[in-house]
Amino acid sequence: MNAKLVTMVLATLLAATSLAPAQSALPDSGYLADAATAMARMMAAMDIAPTGDADRDFVAGMVPHHQGAVEMAEAELKFGKNVALQRIAQEIIVTQRDEIVAMHRALQP
Known about the structure:
mainly alpha
């Protein structure tokens, strides 16, 4: 994804989740802010310069994608109320972190 597109996506996300006074009363405004931050960080980190090595490029894009899922799941644990969704969020955190480690190990000689 090119830098201009990332900037446009981030601007849209931040505008949609800005904590203006009228919005701060929304029950999930904290979640929305944390999720937007996670998404912005993920999108920026996924904007990689290709190396020509499919394996390395795959990991370079997937690690931030998985980390974004971890951060969004952490926001669910912080702000969510649904016990079933919080269990799923905990599973996401564990599995995505494990997969990040596995991807890094797979690239080691």
